[in-house]
Amino acid sequence: MHLFIFGLLLGWGVAIPFGPINLEISRRNLLQGTAEGTIFGLGACLADVSYLILLSFGALALFTHTAILRAIGILGSLVLIWFAIQALKNKEEQTSAPLKKRSLWGHLIAGYAMTLLNPYNVLFWSSLIAQIAVVAEAKSFGVLIAGSGVLVGALSWVLFLNFLLHLTRHKLPKKIIQSLNLAGVVILFGFALFGLVRALFFM
Fold it and tell me: Are 73 and 9 in contact (CB under 8 A)?
């Protein structure tokens, strides 16, 4: 049971802090709907479980090398810039026509890809190599148990956040939601530029 709790704490630890993923979940929920924000968040949760599995097999040990971390940082920052540009396009489309909703599968894949390539997530999981190695050696199904905890922890936060946004969204004027979307775009660009500078000059 302690492995499940360990995974649960990891899930909360990676999901709750403010960052690009929570920002994008909030932006999609307010702009497109609760289902879209929740499915995007589910994709992010699945990516975190993928990291735990990769970590348990030693794959993330590669990320201890500076050159690989730099490449991931640059790629992840470019992905964040792409998401920010797409969000900006959505804002421009709103002024002339209703926003076209992508399929829920599209939101799931976007959440998975954005989280998997997010340099902040890479740093979080690569910092836990030693702890995950202990989990992997603890028992035959240690990774499965811990992975279930990660999924439950991260998903519980995603559901809680989307529930709060669902209660709030209907009370906000459309102009406020559009302004929040624009603020989200600016912050996404900020995260991307910070990650790019860090990858290029501080690794």
Answer: no
Beta carbons of 21 and 114 less than 8 angstroms apart: yes
DSSP string, 97-142: SPPPPPPHHHHHHHHHHHHHT-HHHHHHHHTTHHHHHHHHHH-TTH
Query: Is there a contact between 19 and 88 (Cβ–Cβ < 8 Å)?
Result: no
Which of 63-96 are b and which e, b meaning 16 or more Cβ less than 10 Å from the residue's Cβ?
Answer: beeeeebbebbbebbebbbebbeebbebbeeeee
Reported as a single tens digit per residue, the pLDDT across 42-63 is 999 999 999 888 877 776 667 6
Structure confidence by residue, pLDDT tens digits, 22-45: 999 998 898 888 999 999 999 999
Mind giving me the DSSP string for 8-63? Answer: HHHHHHHHSS-SHHHHHHHHHHHHT-HHHHHHHHHHHHHHHHHHHHHHHTTGGGGG
CA 191 from chain centre, in angstroms, equals 13
Structure tokens at 147: 């992975």
Centre a 10 Å sphere on the Cβ of residue 177 and count the other Cβ atoms it contains. Answer: 16
Tokens of 198: 């860090």
Rounded Cα gap, residues 39 and 142, in angstroms: 27
d(CA 37, CA 21): 10
The count of structural domains within the chain is 1
**Under 8 Å between Cβ of 178 and 18:** no
Distance CA 75, CA 197 (A): 12
